[in-house]
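CORE FACILITY INTAKE
Project code: CF-77B
Contact: R.S. (postdoc)
Sample description: multi-component assembly, two entities in total
Requested service: structural model of the whole complex
Turnaround: standard
Below are the sequence entries exactly as provided by the requester. Do not edit them.
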Amino acid sequence: MLAVLLLALATLYVTWTAGRLDRLHARVDAAWAALDAQLVRRASAARAVASALPPGPQREALEQAARATLEVGFAGREAVENDLSRALRAAVPLLPRGDALQELESASTRVGLARSFHNAAVRDARVVRLRRIPRALRLAGHRSMPEYFEIDDTTVPH
Amino acid sequence: MRVGIACPYTWDVPGGVQSHVRDLAEHLLALGHEVSVLSPVDDPDRADLPPWVVPAGRAVPIPYNGSVARLVFGPLSLARARRWVREGEFDVLHVHEPTVPSVSMLACMAATGPMVATFHTATARSRALQVFGTALQPVLEKVSGRIAVSPAARRVVVEHLGGDAVLIPNGVDVARFDGAAPLPGRPAGPTVVFLGRIDEGRKGLAVLLEALPELVHLVPDVRLLVAGPGDVDDVRAAVPRSLRDRVELLGLVEPEDKPRVFASGSVYCAPNTHGESFGIVLVEAMAAGTPVVASDLEAFRRVLQGGRAGVLVPVRDPGALAGALGDLLLDEPRRRALARVARAAVERYDWQTVTAQVVAVYETVLAAVPPTAHVEVDADLEVLAALLEDGEEDDAGRVLTTLRRWIAERPRRDRVPAPR
């Protein structure tokens, strides 16, 4: 009798945890989609402000950095986004105030928000995945372990 | 956008979280968003209840976090919260203080869509969080965007719940306080204003009353104006008989009278002892142009820019408080200078600035919903490519190809999203 009860409880726990992991992974995927979109938006804002710079190495560096972020896959993304942040930090003081700079500021802020939310989602998912029972029973299925996305996203001095 | 906001504390009782929610709701409405607020309400028939407030029942007073919190919890409230979430069909649900056992937590349990949570509490050691932190995790992990109103509140989130929160300060309607007239028919002369619950120890009225005899010694014609709910007789009993005529007790003041209360003071005094996460009253006093003398708490130090925009005094030190108040009351040029610095310092707390930041959070969270169909994704790509088309033509084509490749590389490509 007791064994049956325990078995029922264990089954309940496992099903619930599997469902929970599924939701957590969905949240990570969605948060990544949002972060991805904001990074693309930032890259396109960077290209827009680059065209406002006078021709020269500064402008070329910024255009190159923006282009690189659009061409890389997931691996190596952090490095090229960091390069873009660096190029933007160098370029922003030279830029005239205007719509293009405002769009860049707005995009940069949202990259910061989206990155914070993405990493919070990754953390929540990892905490559950790394527990003993979900790991032993492979409750996460075939999905790869969610990875943090760490870049220095400050581009505009406040 | 349709925004549902859950407020855990009783709407009828004044408090920091309640006014935050009210102001946020009003500013979102002013921007053209649709807003519904779920909150405990003691008297659902009161005439001044805004039409966008949905009462969640009467609250029960429970000592919590050093104050008396009035909370609702239970199956009936959960059912109400569930109905509110279902019927509201919100684009985004914004819960305030979801760790407090009240409607925010219930709404959080009931909802599934995009969710934002704001954390106000800055108590370093919250017993409730220590006990229930782990148990709350499954509820809180549904929240996709976390906001903290102060660095202290953010630290609480990081320590007790894990993970980060973005910092968006509390808002103040600067224009509502700027240039307010003093209350009518009040005697002239140096006046110290206190505003806050008078029966709540951590607001520190006791410290100020203890400082009063020495302050009278320094500034013989000083008066004390005390505004806030609580037992007025208890306060009167705590004042020496000879000084009672100098203490004016206003009791609970209506929110619309607050600017005039600040304007009636030569100095605003915040002798709080602990447990302040932000110090919105300080910002209000500063917006009203009243110089501030406040306890040297971390939150206050931040608002007062380390003492540039107001005077900081040691916590629970009546002697130091009397000295600082006396000095400032006798130095009008310094009061004017402080008020000027303070007025500039409050710009970043103006609700217009703050609401724009909150809306940016909503939009970021809304962007984080799984794509519904490949056709739609493709349509989005065309739009994106069109947006990028300011460059050369082959550039746009390349961007499109790259984006397609990303979509294909994404791990979730094989998963069919559940219909919403």
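Facility notes:
- The first strand of chain B starts at residue 2 and ends at 6.
- Chain B has three domains: 2-171+355-366, 175-348, 373-414.
Invoice: internal transfer
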